[in-house]
């Protein structure tokens, strides 16, 4: 590995030995070195570089129980390849586990901005989740706006209709509730 840090058989064998020995700290060190080499190697695609960083994050999260460090690794992977779905999904799941609602709101807003208008199922999902996240705010205006946007695309989405009705009633906006 010292002669050629990108030598796949040597990397795989070293990783396999570390996993078998449950030497997670050593495997983390190896994974970080591999991620650094991927970043420096101009032949690697953005997805390959992000994948190497994702491996670091997964190891930190799953084996070493370091969620904040894993979060930084996932953020790094997303900054390398913003459209790399596995990193975005792991980051989203970790934010849910951490209960960081503000970061989730920011993340979903960014996801919504990236999604093309033609990706209706994903956009509906994002509007719905953002509406739910904002539904417990002191001022439900943000949630109401998100749900109205969702319902303009999918007027028969019953859970969103029900949540919108509750929020309008809570806000005292009875006139809009009757519409």
Description of the molecule:
76% of the residues lie in helices and 0% in strands. It is built from ten helices and no strands. Helix 4 (67-80) runs antiparallel to helix 5, helix 6 runs antiparallel to helix 7 (120-134) and helix 7 (120-134) packs antiparallel against helix 8 (141-153). The protein is elongated.
Helix-strand sequence: HHHHHHHHHH
Helix content: over 70%
Oligomer: single chain
- Beta-strand proportion: under 5%
Tally the helices: what do you get?
10
Report how far the terminal alpha carbons are from each other: 68 Å
Number of strands: 0
Shape: elongated
Largest sheet, in brief, is:
none
Radius of gyration from the CA trace? 21 Å
Question: What would you call the structural class?
Answer: mainly alpha
What is the typical, i.e. mean, pLDDT? Answer: 91
List low-pLDDT spans: none
Keywords:
mainly alpha; 10 helices; 179 residues
How is the topology of this model organized?
Blueprint: H1 8-20, H2 24-40, H3 46-63, H4 67-80, H5 85-98, H6 101-114, H7 120-134, H8 141-153, H9 158-170, H10 174-178
Helix pairs in contact: 1-2, 2-3, 3-4, 4-5, 6-7, 7-8, 8-9
Short description:
The chain has helices spanning 8-20, 24-40, 46-63, 67-80, 85-98, 101-114, 120-134, 141-153, 158-170, 174-178.
